[in-house]
Amino acid sequence: MSHDTHEQTGDQHECGPHQYQSQGTGVGILFERSQGFDQFQSPGPSFGRLNPNIGVQTLATILILGAHRQLFRLCQHLESLDGEMRAMIGWRCALALDSNRKVVEGSGRDLAIAIGRGADLRIGTEFRHNEHIDTTSENDELVREVAEFAVTYLVDDRWTAGIMNLRQPVELPVGFGPRPSMSFFLYNEDGEQAIARPFLDGESVLGQPGPSLATSPAGMPKYHQRDSWDGETNAPSHNFVYDFDCFRYFVRQRWEELLVHDAEGNVQSGSIEALAAAFSEGRSIKVGVCDLCADLGDENVLRHELFVETGSGYYYTERQLFIAGTHPIVRVRPGIPMRYTSRGWDFGWLVLRTDGAVSYRCCDPYTLAFQDLELQCPVRWFADER
Fold first, then answer.
1. Which of 18, 25, 73, 199 could form a disulfide with 181 if both were Cys (CB 3.0 to 4.6 A apart)?
2. CB neighbours of residue 209 within 10 Å
């Protein structure tokens, strides 16, 4: 706490946001020592010797002033903490790109740090209806979209991407698209986009996986298709860029890292007890799984971490073993940028244990057949803030 020094004069002094005069029996003579007047503090144990000539009314006034000063400083401190907490657990824009995908706010580094700490990700874009949805329409209305990317990737500790893991095709402004499928949109931090679409309607397909003809939609000059894969199969995909008017990467840092273990379950930081205690309080649990997609690449696959929230958890109290099942995930061959390729992705669900064991119920997107894979992975465990 700072101290305000008062002279033996009638000069004006500052006390927080207020001004007062040291006149008569005012503040300047409330406390004194043998050698003149001392510094005024409120509150504190070293007040000096109380001047017996001080009036009761003046004493009350000065005590109120001191309390007011402390209250003001407390409010300032709480306001500062409130701003910090809002920045920590509220949504904020970590990165923004213009229509040319140039950075206009934040940075990729800021986004990578946030994702690496388990932050949730939502991406906002803007477009004109007759430029992106129906190019034959006269409706040039501006449309804003903000979408959840609940599966996030941190690649090589420096590159981020997010995937929509729950979306069905939407036909704006009416409803759903014509064929039931998953729309696994993938957005990179530089605005590069991709989509993989496993169909769910059971229609028979005879094509073989491989490269397909890459053709951008007619009448849509802002759409730039990079490539196309598996067009005659049940799981077509392609990589593209649509020149949205803007890209805004929103993050929410609401997660506390409580446990880190290696692929064999050896604790590297935190503790299982802390994780179990948070889980037992009803807090949500999120995981960062390291190198989960290694089998989709070659031996030089980039280091990567996939983040996803869990839905159910179980704690064996005697064995001190925690188990959790995740929301659906989409695995993609790691790269910078992240892209879909033929047989370079799949989707499914995870069951993870704190001894490093990971069960992956993998769905083959070409056949929709399931297979259970048993893995050992390093995992970071997070709980949402109280």
1. 199
2. 20
Distance CA(29)–CA(275), nearest Å, equals 57
Tell me the pLDDT tens digit for each residue of 131-168.
999 999 999 999 999 999 999 999 999 999 999 999 99
Structure confidence at residue 298 (pLDDT): 81
Instruction: Please provide residue 130's backbone torsions phi and psi, each rounded to the nearest 5 degrees.
Output: -85, 5
Interatomic CA distance for residues 234 and 163, integer angstroms: 19
Q: 163 with 186: CB under 8 angstroms?
A: yes
Give whole-number Cα distances, 92 to 155, 159, 237, 386, in Å. Answer: 22, 19, 31, 19
The mean pLDDT of 119-124, rounded to a whole number, is 98
User: Strand, helix or coil at 249?
Assistant: strand
Q: Identify whether the C-beta of residue 28 lies closer than 8 Å to the C-beta of residue 8.
A: yes
Which of 225, 190, 199 is CA-nearest to residue 96?
190
Q: Which residue has the tokens 């805004």?
A: 248
Residue 325 CA to residue 353 CA, distance in Å, equals 9
Contact indicator for 184, 164 with CB cutoff of 8 Å: yes
What's at 203, amino acid-wise?
E
